[in-house]
């Protein structure tokens, strides 16, 4: 049964984003799959069937984000899933800072840019759900992972952005949370045990929280994690 809601998922042409889109589609949302590669986005949309659509979107490109906003219009749910891990196996003292810069550009500024484009409409309409796909590698409670320093710092910053947007949208009907799905078997982590489909359920749960649900929290299913 259709909920009448529209969800935009970034990085949805493959892996975890594609799995999240499939779960939200199955739960009755009209999903918009966004990704940089037009061909893979079209293939993912065709596999999913209606009501699903696709959009070419590069989160690092302001013009691309603006064009996507003009094409898609307001959405009810935004899943900021697009992300990269480019500095695995390095350390904070020797990592190439160009890799760190590129990681921050996608994982933090990209998610921030897309949120600026779509969240104001949610506030105006007095309802919305924003989910940032984060990681335990960026949690101070766990201890930041030094084996991928740029990635870890990007997820710490993403968690900080979550709390700021949650505070900014308080009492507007918009809930903003980060989800730590745990290590998930994608191109980024091919040896992880959890499947994208399993992790996607956790993200979908945060995307469909009830009106009295939490905001500004670090979630895994029904658990609130320490930052």
CATH class: Alpha Beta
Q: Which stretches are low in confidence, meaning pLDDT under 50 for 5 or more residues running? A: none
Sheet with the most strands: spatial strand order: 3-2-1-4-5-6-7-8
State the separation between the terminal residues, measured CA to CA.
36 Å
In CATH, the architecture is 3-Layer(aba) Sandwich
What form results from the Cα inertia axes? globular
Total number of beta strands = 8
Organism: Actinoalloteichus hoggarensis
GO molecular function, one term: 3-oxoacyl-[acyl-carrier-protein] reductase (NADPH) activity
Pfam families: adh_short
Family: Belongs to the short-chain dehydrogenases/reductases (SDR) family.
Question: Which key phrases capture this entry?
Answer:
227 residues; alpha/beta; Rossmann fold; eight-stranded mixed β-sheet; 6 helices; 8 strands; 16% strand
């Amino acid at each position: 049964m259709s909920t009448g809601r529209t969800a935009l998922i970034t990085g949805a042409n493959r892996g975890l984003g594609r799995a999240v889109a499939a779960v939200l589609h199955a739960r009755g949302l009209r999903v918009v799959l966004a990704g940089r590669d037009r061909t893979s986005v079209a293939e993912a949309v065709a596999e999913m069937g209606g009501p699903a659509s696709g959009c070419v979107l590069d989160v690092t490109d302001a013009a691309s984000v603006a064009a996507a906003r003009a094409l898609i219009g307001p959405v009810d749910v935004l899943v900021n899933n697009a992300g990269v891990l480019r500095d695995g196996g390095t350390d904070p003292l020797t990592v190439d800072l160009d890799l760190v810069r590129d990681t921050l550009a996608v994982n933090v500024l990209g998610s921030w840019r897309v949120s600026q484009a779509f969240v104001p409409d949610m506030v105006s309409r007095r309802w919305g759900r924003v989910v940032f796909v984060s990681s335990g590698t960026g949690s101070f409670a766990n201890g930041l992972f030094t084996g991928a320093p740029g990635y870890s710092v990007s997820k710490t910053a993403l968690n900080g952005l979550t709390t700021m947007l949650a505070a900014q949208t308080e009492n507007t009907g918009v809930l903003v949370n980060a989800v730590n799905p745990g290590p998930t078997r994608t191109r980024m982590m091919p040896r992880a045990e959890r499947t994208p489909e399993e992790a996607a359920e956790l993200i979908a749960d945060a995307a469909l929280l009830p009106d009295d649900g939490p905001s500004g929290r670090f979630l895994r299913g029904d658990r609130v994690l320490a930052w």
